[in-house]
Write a structure and sequence with these properties.
The structure is a single chain. The protein is an alpha/beta fold. The protein is built from ten helices and 17 strands. The strands form four sheets. Strands 10, 11, 12, 13, 14, 15 and 16 form a seven-stranded mixed sheet that branches. Strand 4 and strand 5 (77-80) form a beta hairpin. Helix 1 crosses helix 3 (52-66). The longest helix is centred in the first third of the chain and has 29 residues, at 82-110. It starts with a strand and ends with a helix. Residues 3-21 have low confidence and may be disordered.
Length: 318
């Protein structure tokens, strides 16, 4: 079993161990990360498709090459040292850079960018990225997605993601493009009493909305913060409501007539949407930004895709 306690080993600057420059073996670094992430040598060996004794030998050689004690051993139990914890981010970054270097070589050989990976929240993936990928077809490189949380999204750039779609502002250390704001709207089926009452209008007063049971994301979601702030400023409070962070479920609750869905879905099928207003004030939305590493080999292609994604969002909101 691998635990997170442990004080052995001393963290050293990247590329320097004991005052000496060390070259890191990328294969062994991959093995080290697998153990750190899997929790045990046995689980890591299964994930890597090698035997446990072979993996254990590679880990010892990795420690010898770096002149660092990464694991403290007590029988079959391993404990990560402080040096190991300090080394994890560096290994992740180096492996990601190595993978991108391989992609760059493939792209140069092919004369085009074959594929890119996008990291975003599950809601952004299902409601925005997936429809965009379908609409763009073969006019863009193959895009695959990785779900992440709102607050971990930029960390994905140090992993396998080529570009991230974030709901929080990026730092100055990345290239970025603002994609616009996705409004939070109230969605009901056309036969819902609120839809019939508001027929001919594109908005509903917040006090009228809160007479209904609403379904909305939990407080882990950025959009929920937008809703709570607006409702509070209007001098109201949420009444009967249900929380769910899955947009498909929120849409299903609305279509079944069980609740009015408050969500950032662009145009869910068989539902009509209303802006939520308090007099002349309108419930806002969630800002989106695309971000990528400035030196990325496909930086120009990513920027072009981001601009197309922005145009897709703008067109969907008309």
């Amino acid at each position: 079993m691998l635990s997170n306690a442990g004080k052995a080993g001393k963290a050293c600057p990247e590329g320097m161990v004991g005052g000496k420059s060390r070259e890191m073996d990328m294969v062994k670094a991959k093995y080290f990360l697998a153990v750190a992430e899997a929790g045990t040598v046995t689980a890591a060996a299964e994930r890597l498709g090698i035997t446990q004794p072979a993996l254990s030998r590679q880990l010892r050689r990795f420690e010898e090459e770096l002149d660092l004690e990464l694991f403290m051993r007590a029988g079959s139990s391993l404990t990560l040292s402080d040096a190991a914890h300090a080394l994890i981010p560096t290994c992740r970054r180096l492996l990601a850079e190595s993978a991108r270097a391989g992609q760059a070589v493939e792209a140069l050989r092919a004369g085009s960018i074959p594929a890119l990976r996008v990291a975003a929240t599950p809601t952004t993936i299902s409601t925005l990225l997936a429809p965009f990928i379908e609409a763009a077809g073969q006019t863009i490189p193959l895009l695959t997605t990785t779900p992440v949380t709102h607050y971990d999204v930029f960390d994905a750039l140090e992993g396998s993601a080529d570009v991230v779609i974030a709901t929080i502002p990026p730092g100055n250390d990345v290239a970025s493009l603002a994609l616009g704001t996705i409004p939070v709207r109230a969605w009901v089926p056309p036969t819902h009493p609120m839809a019939l009452e508001c027929a001919g209008s594109t908005s509903v007063e917040v006090r009228r909305l809160l007479q209904e049971k609403v379904a909305l994301p939990s407080r882990r979601s950025v959009s929920r913060g937008v809703v709570d702030s607006f409702v509070g400023t209007a001098g109201c409070a949420l009444g009967s409501h249900a929380e769910c962070d899955d947009t498909a479920t929120l849409s299903a609750l609305a279509r079944s007539g069980r609740a009015v869905a408050l969500m950032t879905e662009l145009q869910p099928p068989r539902l009509v949407g209303f802006d939520v207003v308090d007099g002349e004030k309108t419930l806002g939305g969630v800002p989106l930004v695309a971000a990528w590493s400035p030196g990325h080999f496909a930086g120009q292609e990513i920027a072009q895709i981001a601009r197309r994604f922005r145009s897709f969002i703008e067109g969907s909101l008309r």
